[in-house]
Amino acid sequence: MKKINILVSIVFLASSVFGAVGSSQFQVLNFSPSARAHSIGDSFSSVASGVDSLYYNPAGVSSLSSYEVSFSYSHWIQQLDFLNISGKMKLKGIGNVGLGVMALLYDDILKVTEKNGVLVQSDEKINSGDYLVVGHFSRNFGSQISVGVNFKMISETLDTVHLIGVGGDCGVLYSFSKEMGAGISVLNLGIEDAPMLIRAGMHYQKILSDNITFLLTGGIEKNGGSGIKTGFGGEVTFLDRYTLRAGYRIGDDLGAFRMGAGVNIERILVDYGFNNYSDLGNVHRIGITYKLEE
């Protein structure tokens, strides 16, 4: 336990020294790219799931698979398209290295001008979009501790305004046993005008029979200057192939309840996530991951 206490202290110290306050800039950083993670309430900071952990806790990328590639897509509310593609590979004796690219694209936003005190919509489109590139490294220290770091560059364009940010993430996972683990991560360190995000959580996984596996997760989140949010969820996997998921977020005004499903076809994992944002409509997420193990 002494080792994990030291690592957690380092993570919190880094957050206090390099963290930025909450901001409305760089909104792509607030998106949850993984259909699986979103379906279980984004309580994903303690789950070692491979490349899907890249944006939640970089320590979780240090999984058993030698190679992984993941793609996810969501057509969001207010005519937003969200795309993510990421991959990782294991270097023997060194650790895991990875790369991720995310994009938040706005559909046909038209300029609005003022004429004689009246707002008039023009036919001219606004050039807009957010882009994020993440470089990754993680490795295991023994059988219980995993540590990961990200280096990230982000770009945001809205009409004639163009912002660029550079920073990083760090995270730690600790496995109490094969069934229980905990994790903590600090995201967006050092990025000016970006929301610093601190996540911590625990999970419990139990093999109920030869055909059924159950996972229960819970976590807390502090986003910049906003209050603390809590998420929890669970998933049940049948026959090592089919998965059902559900989750809930306390602190989100809209879209608090989520659900989803997944299917494992040989080395290909297909995940789906859904939640409702009341009058704003439904949001669907789809993710495809390819895993290759030695």
Structural notes for this entry:
The N terminus is likely disordered. With 294 residues, the protein is mostly beta strands. Helices cover 7% and strands 59% of the residues. A hairpin with a 3-residue loop joins strand 6 and strand 7. The chain has a single domain, classed as Porin. The strands form two sheets. It has a 14-stranded antiparallel β-barrel. Strands 4-5 form a two-stranded antiparallel ribbon. It has two helices and 16 strands.
Large-scale geometry:
globular
Which class do the helix and strand fractions yield? mainly beta
Uncertain spans = 1-23
| CATH fold-level label | Porin
Order of helices and strands: HHEEEEEEEEEEEEEEEE
Note the beta-strand portion. over 45%
Q: What kind of sheet is the major sheet?
A: 14 strands, antiparallel, barrel
Record field, number of beta strands: 16
Instruction: Give the tally of structural domains.
Output: 1
CATH fourth-tier homologous superfamily: Outer membrane protein transport protein (OMPP1/FadL/TodX)
Strand adjacency order, main sheet: 1-2-3-6-7-8-9-10-11-12-13-14-15-16
In the CATH hierarchy, what is the architecture at level 2?
Answer: Beta Barrel
Give a topology summary.
Layout: H1 2-18, H2 35-39, E1 67-76, E2 80-91, E3 95-106, E4 110-115, E5 118-125, E6 128-141, E7 145-158, E8 161-175, E9 180-189, E10 197-207, E11 212-223, E12 228-238, E13 242-250, E14 257-265, E15 268-276, E16 282-292
